[in-house]
Amino acid sequence: MVNVEHPVVFAVGILGNILSFLVILAPVPTFYRVYKKKSTESFQSVPYVVALLSAMLWLYYALLSMDVLLLSINAIACVIESVYLAIYLVYAPRDAMAFTLKLLCSMNMGLFGAMVAFLQSCVQGQRRVSIAGGVGAAFALAVFVAPLTIIRQVIRTKSVEFMPFWLSLFLTISAVVWFFYGLLMKDFYVAMPNVLGLLFGLAQMALHLVYRNPKKSGAVSEMQAADAEKQEQQLRQCHSHSSHVAATLDADGEVVRSTDDDAGAAMNVVVDIMPPPPPPVEEAPPLPPPPAMVMMTTPHQTAVEVA
């Protein structure tokens, strides 16, 4: 149990509580966006389900080990993560909502409840604390890994739009602080998972450095891709519902046009086409007059022009 007799440990624990609280608040802009747009877009619920389960496990471990600092921050985490999931369930599509409810029922209620029931009934003393700490450490790793479930989406779209920067940053710093807290407390269940937590946090920060400029990296927003796909579907629907007109010539040289209406009935429209007027006959140009002939008589006579 941490108290004022260990001022350094207590100070590190308080700093860890503050940073963890900032980590918990990091998704607030994300869920405010969900609330404003009334849609979860491409956000996933898995990181928040895993974070809630991890907080529940650490809360149980803190109760067994009488660690006040772990108890306080994980109690707050359980409340806030539950609010996040409630907002997600309100605005999620039917399939995503069903998937999230299945996760909550199977993991946060079924798995956690079974573990607590087993430890309370079958395990005694320090062994119960050790098992609870080991399970909590394992799920702490899952909290750090969970945001990386969208790494494929980040690489495909070349955008970190759906991987919040502040969440990745505070996870990295918090991992460092809780690592030293575990060392000072000689609580390796707290220290060990934060080693990998630091590595995962650095990986997320590296993705932010690579894809922080969407214009230069050619990023394609999921919203833009969805809008383009929706417009393309609408164009295909309009094209399939449009009338099909075919023109044929009958034996008399008339054009028969066949149209299909919405009921699928066919109509024949006969259009008379007047034959084009014959081209004007060009008249032959008049022949030029024959050349004049001049006949000369004797020198003392005048010239006579013969036409």
Keywords:
2 domains; two-stranded antiparallel ribbon; three-stranded antiparallel β-sheet; elongated; disordered C terminus; 7% strand; 307 residues; mainly alpha
Which helices and strands occur, and which strands form pairs?
Blueprint: H1 7-25, H2 28-37, H3 46-65, H4 68-91, H5 94-122, H6 125-145, H7 151-157, H8 165-185, H9 188-210, H10 222-241, E1 246-249, E2 255-260, E3 266-271, E4 293-295, E5 304-306
Antiparallel strand pairs: 1-2, 2-3, 4-5
Helix pairs in contact: 1-4, 1-8, 2-4, 3-4, 3-5, 3-6, 4-5, 6-9, 8-9
Would you write up a description of this structure?
Belongs to the SWEET sugar transporter family. The chain crosses the membrane at residues 6-25, 46-63, 69-92, 99-119, 131-151, 163-184, 190-211. Forms homooligomers and/or heterooligomers. The protein is built from 10 helices and 5 strands; from the N terminus they run ααααααααααβββββ. With 307 residues, the protein is mostly helical. The protein has 2 domains: 7-230; 243-272, no CATH class. The protein has a 3-stranded antiparallel β-sheet, with no helix packed on it. Strands 4-5 form a two-stranded antiparallel sheet. α1 (7-25) packs parallel to α4, α3 packs antiparallel against α4 (68-91) and α3 (46-65) packs antiparallel against α6. The longest helix has 29 residues, at 94-122. Mean pLDDT is 75; it is low at 217-222, 242-271 and 290-307.
Q: What is the number of beta strands?
A: 5
The computed structural class is mainly alpha
SSE order = HHHHHHHHHHEEEEE
In angstroms, what separates the terminal alpha carbons? 144 Å
How much beta, percentage-wise?
5-15%
Mean pLDDT: 75
Radius of gyration, whole Å? 42 Å
Low-confidence stretches: 217-222, 242-271, 290-307
Shape: elongated
Contiguous helical run count: 10
Number of domains: 2
Q: Order of strands across the widest beta sheet?
A: 1-2-3
Function: Mediates both low-affinity uptake and efflux of sugar across the membrane. Mediates both low-affinity uptake and efflux of sugar across the plasma membrane.
GO molecular function, one term: sugar transmembrane transporter activity
Main location: membrane
Pfam families: MtN3_slv (PF03083)
